[in-house]
Amino acid sequence: MIIAEAPRLLLREFSSDDVGPLAEILGDPRVMEFSTNGPCTEDDTRQFIDWCQGSYRDHGFGQWAVVERLSRAVIGFCGLSHVELDGAQEIEIGYRLAPSVWGQGLASEAAEAALEYGFSHCHIDSIIAIIATRHVVSACVAEKVGFKIDTHTKYRGWNVRIYRKHRTANAGAA
């Protein structure tokens, strides 16, 4: 099911057919450099997709496949997840894209689509991004789509900045 459309991308729910293409992306150490879990195996990726599908059922959102409109190829994931941070329940945006598409503004495009869906369709009031302090590129993506630094903390042993974006009055109108 297609969740959101962007000029060059589609966000859609993952299916079991996505395990191979996504495993190739998530198995790349460059993609997973700032992931607290590190590179993923095909089995890890299958479990991730199962978890995403459970989140769609339980919460109405999750991490979605990022698909190039023209080629229809899966180039990564972007979406929303429940996370516990410093004892509080939050909704976090996450994104990972294949290195072959880095530097084209696609992460920002996917993030904007995921945020719009979260604010307008799921009526989420506040979304965070947990970004390792050394991950400059991800911080740029977050800032480009309107996140502001909220605080600094440790998350799974990493020094991170917590960025936050709130729903605006017009985002809840859909």
UniProtKB/TrEMBL annotation:
Protein name, per record: GNAT family N-acetyltransferase
Q: What InterPro entries does the annotation carry?
A: Acyl_CoA_acyltransferase, GNAT_dom, N-acetyltransferase
Q: What PANTHER family does the record tag this protein with?
A: GNAT FAMILY, PUTATIVE (AFU_ORTHOLOGUE AFUA_3G00765)-RELATED-RELATED (PTHR43792), N-ACETYLTRANSFERASE DOMAIN-CONTAINING PROTEIN (PTHR43792:SF1)
The record places domain N-acetyltransferase at 9-167
